[in-house]
Amino acid sequence: MNEPAPDLLHLGAADISRLLPPAAAADAVEAALRGGLDPEDCPPRTQVTVPAGQLLLMPATAGGHAGVKIAGVAPANPARGLPRITGGYLLLDGRTLVPLAFLDGAALTALRTPAVSAVALRQLAAPDTRHAVIFGAGPQAYGHLEAALAERPLTRVTVVSRRTEHAERLAAHARALGPHARTGTSDDVAGADLVLCCTTAREPLFDGRLVPDHATVIAVGSHEPDARETDTALVRRSAVYVEARAAARREAGDLLVPETEGAVGPDHIRGTLAELITGRTGPDAGRPQLFKSVGMAWEDLAVAAAVHRAATTGAGGET
What we know:
Elements: E1 9-11, H1 13-19, H2 22-34, E2 46-50, E3 53-62, E4 65-73, E5 85-93, E6 99-104, H3 105-124, E7 131-135, H4 139-151, E8 156-160, H5 164-177, E9 180-183, E10 194-197, E11 216-219, H6 232-237, E12 239-242, H7 245-251, H8 253-260, E13 269-272, H9 273-277, E14 289-292, H10 297-313
Parallel strand pairs: 1-6, 7-8, 7-10, 8-9, 10-11, 11-14, 12-13, 12-14
Antiparallel strand pairs: 2-3, 3-4, 4-5, 5-6
Helix pairs in contact: 1-3, 2-3, 2-10, 3-4, 3-10, 4-5
């Protein structure tokens, strides 16, 4: 008897936000790694230059699912009132490759990237982390604020952005969620417990010498080998962690630029996210902890599968 093909679910931005809160998305990422997924085996991102910017293709398979994200990066879109990140995600049954769901790609990315950062936060940030400095005021900054609040007892938030009105808007949003929040400058990293870099910058955002030894820095803004949000001084003095060494060697400009300067070697990476959560490595006390994320296809798959599970069974979580 033939198996009936399931109806294809269409899950928009509102559905994704409703179905999977930040902590549950982080749980899905962590569960994938605890379940034995090896990010080093994840296919590399395919990047094609198009007139509007970049077209990215990101396939992955794990557990009972496969999937692919087609994402557009259109730098001119915000000036048109459109999102910089566009696209969609097709989730497939891993056994039959029958399509199960089509998800809003920008909303999935806005949930997935903070979820990965939250997993790193769980392992690296001090339990009493109180003051977060956020660089950027776009969708990723909002997502990282909410993810950090779900993981640590923040009481102060400082927003640093090139556009004052956007920084003020994010600070007001942070205040509505509980912490005291204000706008600030890059020098505010000197009093930070947590620094979240969520920008499109191609040059360092702050002086890495100012970051306290106890602080955790998370940089998610770029996946290009010549773009970075953190400077050589910070990389040299930090314990560095990544999603996968292979992906970092291809795309993590925050680490590759200092290497080309001769400031650090290719062995400067202390560990990966999987090594952190399985206990094969841990935080290195006495210096900043730096997690550099480039974004990987397995992360989209883990979160997309959790969203689909929540939509069909009412339960998010493990892939």
